[in-house]
Amino acid sequence: MNPERLAAHLEVNRYGDFTLTDAVRPGAGLPVRPRQGYRVEVFRDRRAKLRLPMLSAAVSAEQVFDVFLALIEPVGEVVHVVLESSHGVYADRHRDLRRSHIDLPVLASHFCEFEELLTHDGCTGVAVLADGRPVEVQFDEHKLFHVYAPDLKPFRRALRRLGVLRRKVLPLISEAEHLHHSTDDHAAAFRQLCMRIGVGDFDRVFSDESW
After folding, report:
1. Rounded CA separation 196/59 (Å)
2. CB-based burial, 158-178: b 16+ in 10 Å, e otherwise
3. pLDDT greater at residue 141 or residue 206
4. What is the pLDDT of residue 27?
5. Pick from 25, 23, 8: nearest CA to 183
6. Max CA separation in the chain (angstroms)
7. pLDDT digits (tens, 9 = 90+) for 172-183
8. Closest by alpha carbon to 174, among 21, 7, 31, 71?
């Protein structure tokens, strides 16, 4: 694809009734057409002998942050948080920085302050984990949601309440060629969010590809 056609493709952020955030765009060949919904499957980690129900969701930009706040509510009053960054990192690598034991309302207030970063930066992701239970909500760099929990019902109810419906087939933008977008301002905002939350040691989340 020539530069002019690629630039025009990257300007497109709406596909039917689905609007993308600024974080990511499908590949030039449009192998996956973005659409709203969620799907349910099973996450398996043979090394850890872990098997958990999992749901993945794609939500239009107008609702994506509201859905994020709704999905973290059932995780618990005190949670752990992992901030994921691929700013300045190559070869599909990223850094995970963890803060343990933070009150969910306090964490949610920080998230609201950095809504622009979390919604529109293609190099920032976040995971919220329950304390003492295998429950995790990820809002990843593609602005997709991944929820891991023995009981998905509270999360499915939250999605239905906001009009996000289950689909038997839901290809995700991350599963085909795609492009991420970030800026120096977003990288600086990520560092500010890290300081605000007080993240420290590195940790892994359920979907870490090295597991």
Report:
1. 27
2. bbeeeebeeeeebebbbeeeb
3. 141
4. 80
5. 23
6. 52
7. 988 888 888 999
8. 31
Write the CA distances from 161 to 66, 72, 165, integer angstroms.
Answer: 11, 14, 9
User: Is the pLDDT assigned to residue 72 strictly greater than 70?
Assistant: yes
Task: Write a three-state SS string for 150-172.
Answer: CCCHHHHHHHHHCCCCECCCCCC
90, two tokens: 């190559």
Contact 9, 25 (CB under 8 A): yes
Residue 1 CA to residue 55 CA, distance in Å, equals 35
Concatenating the DSSP letter of every residue in 173-194 gives: GGGS-EEE---HHHHHHHHHHH
Answer for the pair 118, 65: CB distance below 8 angstroms, yes or no.
yes
- Residue 75's beta-bridge partner residues? none
Does the structure show a pLDDT above 70 at 200? Answer: no
What was the pLDDT predicted at 204?
47
Q: What is the pTM of this model?
A: 0.88
